[in-house]
Write a structure and sequence with these properties.
Largest sheet: 5 strands, antiparallel
Radius of gyration: 30 Å
Strand order of the largest sheet: 4-3-2-1-5
Shape: flat
Distance between the termini: 82 Å
Strand content: 5-15%
Helix content: 55-70%
Length: 254
Amino acid sequence: MSQIEEKTGEAVVTDVARVVPQTSVASRLRNYFLTGLVVAGPLAITVWLIWSIVTWVDDFVRPLIPPTYRPESYLPWPIPGTGLIIAIVALTLLGFLTANLVGRKLVELGESLLNHMPIVRPIYKTMKQIFESLFSKSGSSFRTVALVEFPAPGMWSLVFLSQPPSLDITKRLPQGEHVSAFMPCTPNPTTGFFFYVKRKDLIELDITVENAMTLLISAGMVQPADEAQKKLASLAATAKAARARAKRKVEAAE
């Protein structure tokens, strides 16, 4: 009986010895695969996005070029990026021409014509203001990130601050300094909520817009740098302490 038990124990040890290396190898292969995915995934998506943009610009610009001037007319294969290069050169030339007196007069003439078109006028004005805000050095694009208490007490959301409201809107808002705020959605920051909020109800953060966008798109999986994250935690603790003090004051008043 003891011999049988010894043989059974030896068989179990042998089976475990066979399984452990297989599990170790499988785990290593899984780690290697995940490491390769982490390295190749962002690179592949970046290349795909760049290729999609280049292809889209080429498809848009190519019909505007006469066939005799297209590179594929003289080469056995098309050259990707030619439309993008032509678009960059054309936009640069347009900017150069607009900078002088004649170009400005032509732009003013074109804008005056668009301003007399009922449907086109608001679309053009809105698009012009957006582009000026995004690409102009003196524009008012998002440069400040803040926290606002939303959607419920004790819950905080990231918002981007732009500029104060106009004088006409300020007259109709409650007393206090207000600022324009945009709260993007996750993981698609192109949609969200726009509202005016009192500056005293905001907690401005010392992080860049890029870090905030990364935080939103990743749904919190990618946090800001360590120093910025410590500041964010400190500001959140300050907000929590301020809320606790306000709650105690209300309870004391009751």
